[in-house]
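Tutorial, part two.
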Amino acid sequence: MAGSGCRDRSGSSLWGALAALAVSLLLPGLAQPHDIARRPPWDLKIDQALLQIHNELLNENFTVFWLSDYCYQCAYQELVSLSINRALEESSIAAVAVDTQHAITLVVNSTAESKELCGIHYHFGEFGNYSLLVRSFHNNTQKISCTIVINQDPVNSYIPIFFAFLIYLGIFSILTLGQFCMNIEPIRNWLYKKMNPRETDRLINSELGSPSRTDSINGDLPAGIWNTPSSLQRLRSLDTFRGLALIIMVFVNYGGGKYWFFKHQSWNGLTVADLVFPWFVFIMGTSISLSLSSLLRRGCSKWLLLGKVLWRSLLLFLIGVIIVNPNYCTGPLSWDNLRIPGVLQRLGCTYLVVALLELLFAEPLPENSTLEAPYSAVQDILPYWPQWIFIMALEALWLCLTFLLNVPACPRGYLGAGGIGDLGKYPNCTGGAAAYIDHFLLGEKHIYQHPSSNVLYLTTTAFDPEGILGTINSVVMAFLGVQAGKIFLFYKDQHRQIMFRFCIWSVVTGVISIVLTKCTKDQGFIPVNKNLWSISYVTTLSCFAFMLLLLIYYLVDVKRMWSGAPFFYPGMNSILVYVGHEIFENYFPFKWKMQNTQSHSEHLTQNLIATSVWVIISYILYRKRIFWKI
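Running the prediction step on this input gives:
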């Protein structure tokens, strides 16, 4: 998801000093990735190393080119050129910064003859100091060797994650121990005497323990995407799933400690950041199915529900355009630079289509409804064949537009990143038909200006990962979530049947992904691509979603081994947490001035604290029974 933070409200340097002290205490020795004694001639940035290139060929000038392993079919990029000093007959040296996120290939080409002299494949370590020695092989001027020498060892940038894991594991263990003690009768009775009885009862019977799945209904507003605080036979696992996706989303939006795997993939493939938005869409579909079925069963008018659906969709869209808009970064918000697509905008459009589809074809399902035996295996699918036809038609539309639309100056059916990809043949074709439709219908200035592809593929054209064409597959993702909701409805309290159905759907969507991708990142028929929301991306993330929901459902609602905390609380107030984390992103305590901006430790500490604060806020709001719904 595109970031939206622009305004600097990061707090005073005092808070930065205190934060740096906390980092040094919690993550000892890791607050500074490279101290003064180790500091290279210039300050390296995160995910960089220093490479000193030595030209020991006294009769040859050469140019060094580089290529990242993650840049598919990319053209080599010039790194540096070295000339010899014939007068002094000594080697020349150049120092450059190189990327450490992925392994890279270095190729040394002769400047005069444009031929390759040597090459080497290497994965540099963060803040390391290396030398590339280019020399003749055993005094044979016809054979050139490239050798990497480590001058100074890199730092282990993953140690802060390990320490953070231990800290959170300790906090979780303490809370679990406290909950266990609360279940011991003598301790509970002692607390009852020492504390206010009413407050103690509320604490002992709070949602931190094993919850009741049946609550009363407040109001007639359908739960939809943002569930009301209570609903008929509310499944705690749904809010836990939603909260898990939301908290990871908040963490990666805040920066994810500046680790590459907590950022969105440049083009094809998946990182942690690419998982959460589809899961949020998936669980939205599940909530739509359950809430609308409940309201229809209670006799609510479809016309009344239609009005609620239209209003909610409009609110989501307007909040995304007016409040959560990353084009604030280009100056005061105006029509000239207003970004029209976005996360909430896509959620609003997806919610509208899927909810209307449910209202149009779904019928209220009685509490104890079951079909005849011959149809029991497909009782959650067969009655909704018109919906499936509509979804298949939508997917056919996506395929036709993606692979058959004639995009000027681009090959038909192009799914590449453009830029330096495909050897630089199609630099302005980023996203193919998806980008063309957005540019044609919305205009270049009204879509996202800084896509993830511009870092690795050096693209220069605007591309919106929440664009129009991808919204079609977002609807498909939500509809698969609707299918999960129908499984809950048709197999109510039949835990084995529910989990079996989830497993079947996970296998089916997984097999589709295997066929479409050929089990490769870049060479399948349709690669997994978050920017395009390709159909393989949808089936892959649906496969993961069904399995994750199965696991959470088993632990939370079946065995009740886990209350869903802490993810349950933000899951109950998801719209507040999402909008709030975007608006207050640059305000203390969510952000402060760092002592060292090139430290994973400080970034990770800041991002984890900011995310944890939202969990605490959502917990307090839950205990106060305050829920923000639209």
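Residues 236-330+340-370+379-623 form one domain. In part three we will examine how such features are distributed along the chain.
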